[in-house]
Amino acid sequence: MKTSIATVSLSGDLSEKLAAIAQAGFGAVEIFENDFLAFDHGPREVGRMVRDAGLEISLFQPFRDFEGLPEPQRARAFERARRKFETMNELGTDLILICSNVSPLAQGGIDRAAEDLRALGDIAREQGVRVGYEALAWGRFVNDHRDAWEIVRRADHAQVGLILDSFHSLSRGIECNSIRAIPRDKIFIVQMADAPKLDLDLLSWSRHYRNMPGQGDLPVADFMAAVEATGYDGYYSLEIFNDQFRAGSARQTAVDGRRSLIYMMDRLKAEGRAVKGPSEPNPLPPPARTAGLSFLEFATDNASAVALGELLTSIGFRRAGRHRSKDVALFVQGDLRVVVNTDAEGFAHSSYIVHGTNVAALGLRMQDAAAAMRRAEGLIATAFHQPVGPGELELPAIRGLGGSLLYLVPEDDALGRQWEADFDLEPGWNAHRGAGLEAIDHIAQTARFEDILSWTLFYRSIFDLTPLPAVEVPDPGGLVLSQVLENGDRSLRIVLNGSQSNRTLSSRFVSEFVGPGVQHVAFRTADIFATVAMLRAGGVPLLPIPQNYYDDLDAKFDLAPETLDAMRANGILYDRDEAGEYFQIYLAALDGGFFIEIVERRGYRGLGAPNAPIRLATQARLKPAGMPTR
Q1: Integer angstrom CA distances of residue 274 from 27, 148, 171, 232, 239
Q2: DSSP assignment string, 458-520
Q3: Which of 218, 227, 359, 587 has its CA 20 to 30 A from that of 347?
Q4: Using alpha carbons only, how large is the chain's radius of gyration in Å?
């Protein structure tokens, strides 16, 4: 697959954009005219910069308000086009995008438009360039790729072809199977963009809310499959207008863009809807099958490790062993594994220096760790390697959110061999049941708001995780966007939280404490009332829930009085859905804002979203340890 991206999709000046695009592995770039006009080098030098970066220019765009104009505007439009063709020759590209006319002066008529494009094609032939015609979704007379194709067909000129754009077609609900009948040699380039479903006018929707394929709600896979059915073998190019992307990291946006195209083509190939071309040298393995979390690893120092160890012990963990060559302790409860790393060198130490005490790594239980690593690298994830001692187990790993690590742990090694190979273990180390905690129910990672889409695509494309509809959760300091991803059997749930307000707990966690990363972990128990009794007996501080909450709960659900009284006395929250019941408690937050949740599920499928505003308000009011008072 040939991949390209428009410079308008990224932040920075033209040189910064080109560097990011090349680094992400694209083969070509669309030069957006405003980026070129605002740059302080001429077209020949820009062309050299592109080629020096190992790229070619797939398209120069856009050329607006051309077809169907009356005189003298028509003559002026042709003169403008001649000047642009000269610029294209200096840049070193042969294709320009002509978007359908939106001018109030424009006159309708397919034949009139075709005649103008045919005449322009003659000029283009003289200049050695080609003209691609695109239907804007808000074009005055032409806003449908079927009409644009009919105009191109009637123009009947070798230098005139069609440009397809997924947003312009899908935003209007146009049947994409109509693309299948278009001859592939008349499709000059295909532009790709996704978008969330929003009730907005088309222009505002397009200019501010497009995103990468796989990040939105439009059926971009169906669009791409229809293009593939024509035998098209040209560039798939991203044209993404998005305020967040243009304010964020150009490098990250470029990586996300190429990842999205690889992911979409991989989906089509898996479904048998992609053109069968020459075999790829390294085809991607299927989405990596997960089976839950194998372990959590905290990075900290010796002083903080004492308090962290006491916390773990207070909720039922037992210190089960010590690493043979590193300053690392293992805590165990049932099948749960938590590592506390105080080593004075290596990745964990670097993570502690940058972030303070934090969850520096997660172990993902994988059905095929080696295949998962190949898929991750094929989707531009960053591999991580660190020296291991003699006889120690080396696990494949990739960089995750906030620079953390995701270890890909073979499922058969997750409970035993992984630890027996590296640790000196206490007798009966894996038999401790503690407070009844059985598994990690979910983890919540807090990210910068503008990175939520990026990490959603990361998890979705590499692993077998599906995003659920995002929700906005009220925090006393603003709204928090919460995006849940889960695998098929819900053994792995990852929650991504981010906020545009700098006053929410999520934003303060990122900006003033450990940075993006795991803000809370939810452990699951089979009997929350028995677990709470053990925690209370051990003096574990729990988050106190306002009594008003329980008065409302009593009115909302038909709970037994003794059950409600026990919940009220212990700060247990509750929710119910069509599948069952859900109970939650929260521990007081640690320095930096990290906290632990304990849940019991009785068939319930969600994450207790109705209770999140209560928890957030209580945490904000109590100002957890380490949280600023301002």
Answers
A1: 20, 24, 23, 10, 21
A2: HHHHHBS-EEPPPEEEEETTEEEEEEEEE-TTSS-EEEEEE-S-TTSHHHHHHHHSS-SEEEE
A3: 587
A4: 28
Which residues of the chain are in CATH 3.10.180.10 domains? 290-425, 439-622
462 closest CA partner among 571, 405, 379: 379
Is pLDDT at 628 greater than 80 in this prediction? no
Sign, CA torsion 139/145/151/156 = positive
Q: Is the predicted pLDDT of residue 629 greater than 50, yes or no?
A: no
Burial of residue 529, with CB atoms counted within 10 A of its CB: 0-12 exposed, 13-18 middle, 19 or more buried: middle
Structural contact between residues 439 and 292, judged by C-beta atoms closer than 8 angstroms: yes
- CATH 3.20.20.150 residue ranges for the chain: 2-270
Closest CA to 357 of 623, 599, 589: 589
pLDDT in tens, 354-394: 999 999 999 999 999 999 999 999 999 999 998 888 878 89
- 345: helix, strand or coil: coil
Q: Is 628 helix (H, G, I), strand (E, B) or coil?
A: coil
Distances (CA, A) of 185 to 142, 158, 168, 349, 464: 22, 10, 21, 56, 36
pLDDT value of residue 276: 60
Name the band, by pLDDT with cuts 50, 70 and 90, for residue 147: very high
User: SS3 for 285?
Assistant: coil
CATH architecture of 290-425: Roll (3.10)
- 470: helix, strand or coil: coil
Residues of 377-416 as b/e, b for ≥16 C-beta within 10 angstroms? bbbbbeebeeeeeeeeeebbbbebbbbbbbbbbbbebbbe
**How much is the pLDDT for 610?**
95
Mean pLDDT for the chain? 94
pLDDT at 280 exceeding the cut of 60: no
Per CATH, the homologous superfamily of domain 2-270 is Divalent-metal-dependent TIM barrel enzymes (3.20.20.150)
Range list of H helices, 242-368: 243-247, 250-270, 302-314, 347-355
Q: Dihedral sign, CA of 531, 535, 536, 542?
A: negative
CATH number for the region 439-622 comes to 3.10.180.10
Q: Tell me the C-alpha distance between 590 and 595, whole Å.
A: 6
Q: Is 440 helix (H, G, I), strand (E, B) or coil?
A: strand
Distance CA 19, CA 14 (A): 9
pLDDT value of residue 623: 66
